[in-house]
Structure prediction request, 231 residues.
Amino acid sequence: DAGVIQSPRHEVTEMGQEVTLRCKPISGHNSLFWYRQTMMRGLELLIYFNNNVPIDDSGMPEDRFSAKMPNASFSTLKIQPSEPRDSAVYFCASSRPDSSGNTIYFGEGSWLTVV
Amino acid sequence: DQQVKQNSPSLSVQEGRISILNCDYTNSMFDYFLWYKKYPAEGPTFLISISSIKDKNEDGRFTVFLNKSAKHLSLHIVPSQPGDSAVYFCAASALWYGGSQGNLIFGKGTKLSVKP
Prediction:
């Protein structure tokens, strides 16, 4: 089975530009998560969706960040305008409820550098 | 305030010995705990989990212990192998938080180095 697929893997952009990160969750998974990893804060949850509906976006740092999930197989995380402090690895992850609990499966990440 | 803490940023162990990675949590609502392993330039991968109804779960060389009264869990790797060198993240969730499938709260990770 294909895992969580993220694109782009690497992005270098100039400050002020719009950045769009994309994610395809594992088929059949009904929850999707966007995490950000930085040296200072580790892995932090930005937003998660359940059945395409945003459930908790309290981790989204500012109004410059927005996320959408128009259908069960696609999500985007957008940063507009981007700033150097947004440089991080952004992970998308998905999960489905099972008898053993809430196991989240991660994509390989999108490495963002804003210069 | 961090709800999941991994107080050791790094750990170095000799090949063949036991590696013990520790994790503490503060939220008594957490009832499901996981360990993830992360290699450089890759996403975290699920390693092992434990529900709060258990105090031990074993999978091959990996064993997770849960001490609910102390709000502490640990991951034991025995014997350790050089391929185990990675960053290990502890994570916790309240399984049905708010009536929806809950998210995972991660610690900041412990970098394990297993030396040949």
